[in-house]
# Entry
Amino acid sequence: MFVSRSMTQKVVTIDKNADILEAKELMEQYQIRHLPVVEPDGLLVGMITDRDLRSALPSTFYKKDKEPAKTAAVSSIKVKEIMTQNLVTLSPMDTLQDALLLMQKTLVGALPVVDEKDKLKGIISVRDLLRAFINVLGIGQPGTLLCILVEEKLGQLKKIVDIITEEKISFGSVLVARYWEEGKRAVFPYLLTNNVVNVKKKLKEKGYTLLEPMEWYMDQLPKAEIKDAE
Amino acid sequence: MKKTGFLYDDRYLLHDTGPYHPEAPDRLSVIYAGLEKSGLLAQLVRLEGSVAEMKWIESVHDKAYIELFQSVCQSGKSSFECEDNQLCYQTYDIARLAVGGILEASRLVMEGALDNAFCAVRPPGHHAEINQAMGFCYFNNIAIAARYIQSKWGIKRVGIMDFDVHHGNGTQNIFETDSSVFYYSVHEHPSFAFPGTGRAFEKGSGEGTGFTRNYPMLPGQGDEEYRSVIDNDFIPLFDQFAPEVLLISAGFDAHADDDMSGINLSTEGFTYIMERLVETANKHSGGRIISILEGGYSLKRLPELINNHIEILLKG
# Structure
């Protein structure tokens, strides 16, 4: 779960003295929205995003050939003039959870990963996190999701795992979530099988409640309050 | 009354999946007994399994995969690639007999000796990918039939309708980039059911974009929702595609009494679907239908479901 395992390592970067049209081309070519700005030795000095570019570039309605002076002015803008400095960064030994929480807090779409000397090691974006969480959920592999309601007390998961293991079924993932009923939890094992008939029967025999998937709504979870504009 | 072929072979019962496996030989036994009891069996043209030529199996699956499957069976192992895929010494041969029987049924339909056919085979096929056994399936029966029909009769547009409750990931995988085979699947939503594919945004790729259609249904849905999908989505799409032959991946596990899924189709719900499919084939395909058994695990419901399915084929 370390950032170093999920980040993009071959990072497309740009020099601070490059002009912004070059940055635009790179973003289009690689279909990315963030370009770390680095010194020749790899030192991270800033970041330029597609949003920075949009505000620096003229509107798409502007006609290049009619206003040569403006075109020249835009072409001469350097990356260093519009890049963001004082970046929020991650270290390779930070975890995916760190990245997730930090992105939620800072509202950025990508975080550069640097070593202790601020040299760029990689970048982790919302896209990398999506891929990582698809892996964590195990949903890239064929399987079946169960929803089991349990009392909130120690040792419940062990019993469930034992029952499933007795049926020789492998796990893709297990999620445990809060349930809207006090003192209960919902356990979601994602099982790598098509054949859940027997295991469902056994779980019921042992007294577990199997939730119908449609009885489970994410929006019944305690909601975060929507704050006014800060 | 139509000339309907019925493929069944006692040797299909020899594919032994061990105790407690839903894809059990009894499925075919109850289907056969049900047809016998209702008197329908006497009205059908009986077909038996035959050994499929390798070139047809290789038109879908990689040679290395086929050889691996054969060697796993002959090594005496009880599963292939995943615990789900239980098998026995004879499974490879039985799977080949299933394909061979289906190709023969296809030939008779294409040559006009039969109007349509139902193939009661084991093992099923729609989860099997080019290189991957999955979900009790080894050879993709329907995909091999489609390729066979295309190459022998130069058919330009093959329509496949898959109403098994699970998504036919294998069939989709095989024809994803192919605009000459339209794969339509209606199934339980992949977030709740095996195999986790068949989301609405999977629409084929490259030249095949738009020739794969997935309609996921939510647990608890049934006749009413399926009727709407068939009438408002499937029929307009197939009217546009106008298949020259209609192949059906006929799985009966969306029945409310089938505990392999959370979908609640009634027996009448299946009848409704099948009647619309026959109408579609009459409109575009000269009535040519080759329907191939996939899933369906309720031994109590299978006889009535198959009896109705076949009665509709006989009526045409």
